[in-house]
């Protein structure tokens, strides 16, 4: 339609949302579908957090708040950063938004000009490049490889930086790979960034608390204090606290940047849901012991999925350090034909045929900028994962050619 924005024409709908919606529609139509596309914990929001939300409603805390969050939540975020990351912030350095996605979007809208480049390691969360495009910038994709565990190397980062680079967008543990960077791996990247003082750092730390096998999470400004004044450290309560629908994300960084993000938000959504903000206060200040229990469950699911996928013909699946995703390669399946006669000439063809022939919904790797792969979210029951992986094994065994 000719009256639509030219900017909108530059972006595409979220493939992960589309695949999840398709799986739900097929289920509603009576198909036997196992959906492994949605990045959402199957655990419920802890009771103490729900109780805090109810108490906020009962107390009449249902009015507008400051555009970027109540002072109580901002202070809880400051306390969290000090307690868990060794980073010192004051409330004026904190922004609270309607989910982690809006935090990143606000920052791009507030800072990008035509010609500005944003470095994005691939595979990446599907929304990153499109948010950069909506903000008027240019996404620059920096590929990683299976051989490095889908982690960016310092040489690749160095080679990608140009005078036009404004942001380096960093996600660990990663969506979609689950790859997590150690202190030494992060130090190697921050050493590169220290040589390029015009490059700002935006971190997506949403999966911080979902780490396994003794992996210890670190964030760039924690590893290199010299980056503190040009880093926006982003996080939220969606994944660790099973609060996806509550829509609370947050970030901390230099006051001028936070003020600019506040201006953007004041003219778009204004404040995040008041009730959700009070629930997030309890999430950050309340008991944290349940995190270890849930991590243990996720770790068991990860091991199940990685083991079963590596037993499937033509699939190679590395073991991730965190999050609740695996990102297996299907290079060994390309060029073959499915039992229903479909040529598997891409990871999208693999995912489409898998859904059509087995009822297992995954997201194809091209959506994340690196092929030939697919993403599985193992944030569901062991029984569903076992059945899904059995179907994948059967599908792969039926490939010919």
Task: Outline the structure in words.
39% of the residues lie in helices and 13% in strands. With 401 residues, it is of the alpha/beta class. It folds into two domains: 8-44 and 290-397, Aspartate Aminotransferase, domain 1; 63-285, 3-Layer(aba) Sandwich (Aspartate Aminotransferase, domain 2). The strands form four sheets. The protein has a seven-stranded mixed β-sheet with strand order 2-8-7-6-5-3-4, sandwiched between helices. It has a three-stranded antiparallel β-sheet with strand order 9-14-13. Strand 10 and strand 11 form a beta hairpin. Helix 2 packs across helix 10, helix 3 packs parallel to helix 10 (274-285) and helix 4 (100-111) runs parallel beside helix 5 (127-134). The longest helix is centred in the C-terminal third of the chain and has 21 residues, at 290-310.
Task: Summarize the helices and strands and which ones pair or pack.
Blueprint: H1 15-28, E1 34-35, H2 47-58, H3 71-85, E2 94-97, H4 100-111, E3 117-122, H5 127-134, E4 138-143, H6 154-160, E5 165-171, H7 183-194, E6 200-204, H8 220-223, E7 231-236, E8 249-252, H9 255-266, H10 274-285, H11 290-310, E9 325-326, E10 336-337, E11 343-344, H12 347-358, E12 360-361, E13 363-364, E14 374-377, H13 382-397
Parallel strand pairs: 1-12, 3-4, 3-5, 5-6, 6-7
Antiparallel strand pairs: 2-8, 7-8, 9-14, 10-11, 13-14
Helix pairs in contact: 2-10, 3-10, 4-5, 4-9, 11-13
